[in-house]
Specification:
The complex is a heterodimer of chains A (379) and B (398). Chain A is of the alpha+beta class. Chain A folds into three domains: 7-114, Acyl-CoA dehydrogenase/oxidase, N-terminal domain (Butyryl-Coa Dehydrogenase, subunit A, domain 1, Orthogonal Bundle), CATH 1.10.540.10; 120-218, Butyryl-CoA Dehydrogenase, subunit A, domain 2, CATH 2.40.110; 221-378, Up-down Bundle (Butyryl-CoA Dehydrogenase, subunit A, domain 3). Chain A contains eleven helices and ten strands. In chain A, the strands form three sheets. A four-stranded mixed β-sheet of chain A has the order 1-4-5-8. In chain A, strands 2-3-7-6 form a four-stranded antiparallel β-sheet, with no helix packed on it. A two-stranded antiparallel sheet of chain A has the order 9-10. In chain A, helix 4 packs antiparallel against helix 8 (270-295). By secondary structure, chain B is an alpha+beta fold. Chain B has twelve helices and ten strands. Chain B has helices spanning 7-23, 26-33, 40-53, 71-83, 91-104, 107-118, 233-244, 251-267, 279-307, 315-337, 367-373, 384-395; strands at 124-127, 143-147, 150-157, 168-174, 185-191, 197-202, 211-222, 226-227, 269-270, 273-274. In chain B, helix 10 runs antiparallel to helix 11. The radius of gyration of chain B is 22 Å and the shape is globular. Chain B starts with 6 loop residues before the first helix and ends with a helix. The chains are: A alpha+beta (379), B alpha+beta (398). Chains A and B meet through strand 3, strand 6, strand 9, helix 9 and helix 10 of A and strand 9, helix 9, helix 10, helix 11 and helix 12 of B.
């Protein structure tokens, strides 16, 4: 048993930590958030150069990582600096789908993704789909030499800066995925910022015609690949949450040490000490849930997905506690846009709306638990 | 024991309902229902509407243009306004300053300021908190030094709600720094147009600018604007706080927000069915409704006491804590209910009368901003931690 990261992962984490300390201050954050695409080309090419994107891909696909803990160390640091660059969408989610399902020709694109020249973003969810990746109403109709796509994809994070999209659609063969140029005719993007500073797009596909070669994987392989991609995405989100929670906790503990009311530091009031202790305990729980899910990213799907739901549920609950308690313990200053805490708080809450919220994953966990019990009863 | 309103009270409720039907415009109530940021003009429109009806100053005596209603009538009125999604009236002049002037102000002050509150000439804001004086309000430092027939004021106030619209500010200022903190404070009325007063809006994490910093640099204020006696301001401030707390439970707000939440749940789909059919979500909504039903009765118990002439004491701290927790929990569920549409943030779409297009259903835009904005409920008006201190001291005797 060893709960330490490997030497390589520690080095990667240290490198990224130093880079972000030096380069991702409040001013850079504001620059990225204020950019019409919600990100920075400079930061992105630095990420590529530092190997941060490559760390999200396995060696067989030209990367040098791709495991659960590779994703975890990268995203914990991104969370600590509330980094809004779309690495989860492009590096983790789309990267997985491409690695898993891509033809040799399509996999060539991975090199450009790792090199930072190409952003591919998954456009899976729809206005009515809530958190279900298979509730797809976008249609793929066979036409001469390819497919015609019609439908709407909603709140596609990273959409504004995407070069290509991975679009899910329902065709004669069932659920299918397509690699679509974001600028292709028939692809209309309406882009906007999210509350946490990430940018997203609603994407209308209006008779968008793609060649047959745009089809990604066979229909049968799509759903398992979407589940695997979601699992990797959840690892990234959970790690990002843990990093953000640690930073919010540190900021709050420091504030309690320096802020004086009634003639003494706020941190000397026992009622507040106890609440900070609870925050600390719950963040440790979150870190363990993250270790559980990262450690099972390559496990067989039913076990993996049980951990996915456990982690996303637990960390969603803890993130809300940390958000609300750190604001409350700060008082009014914690609610101002000028002060860093609010950025963490908003990111922590918005994460709950990505890849399934606390209730969604509780329901999935209950399903897994009931299936297990039924199997036990049969044997 | 009788849990019902009397016939007179029910008749009054009907009267309020028909008034709202005829006088509250659909445009205005939609803005409130959808959580838009109201403009100064929106507030002024509603203020004038209530004033025309004579229903503006619900806690003033009739001789000054108030309604003279008792606590039950006031409660019925406020609840109906919330349920109809009427804008809240701006409380600073009406229900915070006015009671202090009525009790401690000079005749000249009453005659000068009260009519101007009613007719909307003066918009008041509150100058209490300072950067270093939050929960520990008595440690405030803004100085007022007597110079002939004036005070010269220097210092800074913060969290001044809607101060950017205000014509006047009532301030707690330090007039004697040598004595115990509470004994050197005075209650001063300051014209915001006086040279040396600067207002800087603060952007909050919901993107709105509803609070401000107010700076005072050698601001000269006539001594005729001192309320009551010098160095007695803390007494007046405490008196004011008991009035601030008459509608502190916010039952009407919660009830209206719960109706809105259920409406959202009916429209929002989960697994192909309305969200309220999802047992996990339904359980969360039910839990809140159960809590709210009990709190509504706790609130009425306190109101009945107040109507019988017993002044609200530390019980209002209970209502503040429970009431704000419930309101925050409903905001939380509304945020959850809208799913992924809780993320998009087109700030301009929240502005009153804006044409900017939001993302997703119309009720989604304000869901997350409202959740974050209402984190303030457990912070302001005496944080919930301060309220717990009051309960343990004043009720439990600890």
């Amino acid at each position: 048993m060893d709960f330490n990261h490997s030497e390589e992962r520690r080095m990667l984490q240290d490198t990224l930590h130093r880079y972000l300390s030096d380069n991702y201050d409040a001013k850079q954050w504001a620059t990225s958030v204020g950019h019409v695409q919600g990100c920075s080309d400079k930061i992105w090419s630095d990420f590529a150069e530092l190997g941060v994107i490559g760390a999200l891909f396995a060696e067989e696909h030209g990367g040098f990582g791709g495991g659960g803990f590779d994703i975890a160390v990268v995203f914990e640091e991104l969370g600590r600096f509330v980094c809004v660059e779309p690495l989860m969408a492009s590096g983790v989610m789309a990267g997985r789908l491409l690695s898993e399902l891509g033809s040799e020709e399509q996999k060539v694109l991975i090199g450009d993704v790792i090199g930072g020249q190409l952003k591919i973003v998954p456009a899976l969810e729809e206005p009515q789909s809530r958190y279900d990746l298979d509730a797809v109403e976008t249609t793929a109709e066979r036409v001469e030499g390819g497919y015609r796509l019609n439908g709407t994809k909603s709140v596609v994070i990273g959409g504004p800066s995407a070069d290509k999209l991975i679009v899910s659609a329902r065709g004669a063969e069932g659920l299918q995925l397509f690699l679509v140029d974001a600028g292709a005719s028939g692809v209309e993007r309406y882009s906007y910022p999210n509350l946490d500073g990430y940018h997203a797009s609603d994407i209308a596909l209006v008779n968008a015609v793609v060649p047959a070669s745009a089809c990604l994987g066979t229909s049968k392989a799509v759903l398992p690949a979407l589940d695997a991609a979601r699992a990797a995405g959840v690892v990234a989100l959970c790690a990002e949450a843990v990093g953000a929670m640690e930073a919010a906790k540190d900021l709050t503990a420091e504030y309690l040490r320096v802020r004086t009311q009634f003639g003494r530091a706020l941190g000397k009031f026992q009622a507040l000490q106890h609440r900070m202790s609870t925050v600390l305990i719950e963040i440790e729980q979150a870190r363990s849930a993250l270790i559980n899910v990262a450690g099972h990213l390559s496990a067989e799907p039913s076990l993996r997905d049980k951990h996915v739901s456990a982690a996303k549920n637990l960390i969603g609950r803890v993130a809300q506690l940390v958000c609300e308690e750190t604001i409350q313990l700060h008082g009014g200053i914690g609610m101002t846009e000028e002060y860093a805490l609010g950025h963490y708080a908003k990111r922590l809450m918005m994460m709950d709306h990505q890849l399934g919220d606390v209730d969604y994953h509780l329901e999935r966990f209950v399903g897994a638990m009931q299936r297990e019990a039924a199997r036990e009863a049969m044997s | 024991m009788d849990l019902n309103y009397s016939a007179d009270e029910l008749a009054f409720r009907d009267e309020v309902r028909s008034f709202l039907k005829e006088n509250l415009s659909q445009t205005l109530s939609e803005k409130v229902r959808l959580g838009k940021r109201l403009s100064k003009a929106d507030h002024e429109e509603w203020h004038a509407t209530l004033n025309r009806q004579g229903w503006l100053a619900i806690n003033w005596p009739e001789e000054y243009g108030g309604t003279g209603w008792n606590a039950v009538y006031r409660h019925i009125f406020e609840e109906e306004l919330c349920l109809a999604h009427a804008p809240r009236t701006i409380p600073f002049g009406l229900s915070m300053l006015a009671p202090v002037l009525l009790k401690f102000g000079s005749k000249v002050q009453k005659d000068r300021f009260l009519p101007r509150i009613l007719d909307g000439t003066d918009w008041w804001c509150q100058g209490y908190s300072e950067p270093q004086a939050g929960s520990d309000l008595a440690s405030l430092k803004t100085r007022a030094v007597r110079d002939g027939e004036h005070y010269v004021v220097n210092g800074q106030k913060t969290w001044t709600t809607l101060g950017q619209h205000a014509d006047w500010i009532f301030c707690l200022v330090r007039t004697d720094p040598e004595v115990k903190a509470q004994e050197g404070i005075s209650f001063l009325l300051i014209d915001m147009k006086t040279p040396g007063v600067t207002v800087r809006p603060i952007t909050l994490i919901d993107g709105g600018q509803e609070v401000n910093e107010v700076f005072f640099e050698d601001v000269r204020v006539s001594v005729t604007n001192l309320v009551g006696e010098e160095n007695k301001g803390w007494t007046y401030a405490k008196y004011l706080l008991t009035h601030e707390r008459t509608n502190i439970a916010g039952v009407g707000f919660s009830t209206a927000a719960l109706v809105h939440l259920k409406d959202v749940c009916a429209k929002q789909m989960s697994g192909g069915k309305p969200l309220l059919d999802n047992p996990y979500f339904a359980a969360r909504v039910a839990q809140i409704e159960i809590d709210l039903m009990a709190m509504a009765t706790t609130n009425l118990r306190m109101i009945a006491k107040a109507a019988a002439g017993q002044a609200p004491g530390a019980e209002s701290s209970m209502l503040k804590i429970k009431g704000t927790e419930i309101r925050q929990a409903i905001n939380d569920l509304t945020r959850r209910a809208v799913g992924r549409y809780a993320m998009p943030f087109v700030s301009e779409a929240l502005d009153s009368g804006a044409n900017a297009q939001g993302v997703g259903p119309d009720y989604a835009a304000a869901a997350s901003p409202s959740y974050f904005n209402n984190r303030k409920l457990s912070i302001f008006g005496g944080s919930n931690e301060i309220q717990r201190n009051i309960i343990s001291k004043a009720i439990l005797g600890l």
